Prior knowledge:
Layout: H1 2-21, E1 22-23, H2 38-46, E2 52-53, H3 66-76
Antiparallel strand pairs: 1-2
Helix pairs in contact: 1-3
Amino acid sequence: MAKSLKVFTNISIIIAIFSNLFIAKASAFSDIKNQFAKECISQLAERKLIKGYADQTFRPQSTISRAEFAVLLLNAFPN
């Protein structure tokens, strides 16, 4: 039980750190102008399910880390 609590606490800390690094404005994404998924990215950002990076980019071609994936899952399934 204590081990699962530590894992949950660590994941919560990682999610909090990464969520503070992201911004919420979809219109500020400077690198999605020519992307085929621009509309989907904008809609997901408006629903606050995804966010971009602090430099106002979304980086649609890059891979995501485990922590970023955890944030996506938390945003999509908050309960």
